[in-house]
Amino acid sequence: MGFLDVLVVALIPVLEVLVVTGIGLSLALHRINLLGPTARHNLNNLVFYVLSPALVVSQLGETITFSSLVSLWFMPVNILLTFIIGSVFAWILIKITKTPPQFQGLVIGCCSAGNLGNLLLIVVPAVCEESNSPFGDSTICSTYGEAYASLSMAVGTVYIWTYVYFIMRIYADKSVAATNNHTNETQTFLESCTESLLLPSTENSSSNALSRTASEGKLSYLGRAFQRIKNFAEKINLKMVFAPSTIAAIIGFIIGTVSPIRKLIIGDSAPLRVLENSASLLGEATVPSMTLMVGANLYKGLTTSGVNTWVIVGIIGVRYILMPLLGLGVVKAAYHFGMVGSDSLYQFVLMLQYALPPAMAVGIIAQLFEAGESECSVIMLWTYVVAAFALTLWCTLYMWFI
Asked: Membrane-crossing residues (predicted)?
């Protein structure tokens, strides 16, 4: 498979994403206004609660079995490593560029979460279907490739809606808290100025204040401990951990790995095949809907984005230089120590997980928190433009190394 063939295979899916993004941008223009703020919010909720879970459950239920899940145990570990490594690089980037607090969660999300499902579902089967593919028979390659991509998408979805969602929520709360603190400090200053004119001069009020202070001091340590536990419990929200896509992944794993359930739902002769067909039909709308939202958010981002140019350059460097190089080392080390088999297609997918552009779900999370959604669209635009060249380069290098 020559360089030109790899160029076409890697370039076409990325160009498709850019074209649909452009359509979303045009639909958000004031003259058309089909994807205004209200429409984007409603579409965002539709993807979050319906379309994305349907895609996850249909892909997993159809392609994952118990035996394949056992043999692919390293993939969830590998994906977790991409999130951790990306977060470390993001933290360094934030310190170097002095990223404003309101954008720090967005930077971590873009550096840690790659497009582990949508692009792999397009690129990997396309590579297999090439006549001179290095991965053998196209039918067998496509079957295994879809299974790898589906598992990657499901695991990535779980990590995004737990790990990334949790981090971006913390930073969004901090940004709101900082704004509220500034407002409260101003209000407190004004109130103190007013109270200074109305202070009581009686000794009784002073003694009561001293007794209250003493009693509060005795309980300060215990109170602080309970307050910390309460704050931590509030942050670990079960609704956040068990997001719709996470629940869908669990259901998909159950359907795919439990043979009696699989026979009832999956297959042309399955009695309940209408359930799988309906989920698959809904899931097909996920990728175009998410891409349209990215383009629609871009309209606002092109005019009001406050993200620093060096932040965008840093994210591109993390996702297309540092991460792919480390990914090559991680997969080669895993193969050396026997954690990954000799399947070249499996190794290729594991390496490719480090070289993907940011996940579009990061934009959905930013939209849900109303924090940096326009800046996220600008980051997505440039990272996907660069992906047209970077993904091609790394696909070629990974095939050569394998």
From this structure: 6-30, 73-94, 106-127, 147-166, 240-261, 311-331, 351-369, 381-401
Is pLDDT of 234 > 80?
no
The residue ranking higher by pLDDT, 205 or 98, is 98
Instruction: Outline where DSSP puts E strands in 2-150.
Output: none
d(CA 383, CA 319): 9
Give pTM, 2 decimals: 0.74
Rounded Cα distance, 126 and 146, in Å: 10
CB–CB of 156/79 below 8 Å?
Answer: yes
pLDDT tens, 156-184? 878 887 888 888 888 887 766 655 554 55
Q: pLDDT tens digit string along 59-101? A: 778 777 777 778 888 999 999 999 999 999 999 999 999 888 8
Hey, where are the domains in the chain?
A: 3-177+237-401
Q: Hey, what CATH class is 3-177+237-401 in? A: mainly alpha
Residues 6+ apart with CB under 8 A from 149: 117, 120, 121, 124, 125, 349
Contact 381, 21 (CB under 8 A): yes
C-alpha dihedral (195, 200, 204, 207), degrees to nearest 10: 40
Cα-Cα-Cα-Cα dihedral sign, residues 331, 337, 341, 344 = positive
Spatial distance between the Cα atoms of 90 and 281, rounded to a whole number of angstroms: 37
Distances (CA, A) of 161 to 12, 118, 142, 273: 28, 16, 28, 28
139-to-128, 245, 275, 280 alpha-carbon distances in Å: 8, 29, 26, 21
Q: What is the DSSP string of 130-175?
A: STT-TTS-HHHHHHHHHHHHHHHHHHHHHHIIIIIHHHHHHHHHHH
Rounded distance between C-alpha atoms, residue 52 and residue 361, angstroms: 10
CA atoms of 372 and 108, how far apart (whole Å): 12
The b/e string for 381-391 (b: 16+ C-beta within 10 A; e otherwise) is bebbbbbbebb
Closest alpha carbon to 102 in 308, 244, 276: 308
E strand or H helix that includes residue 65: none
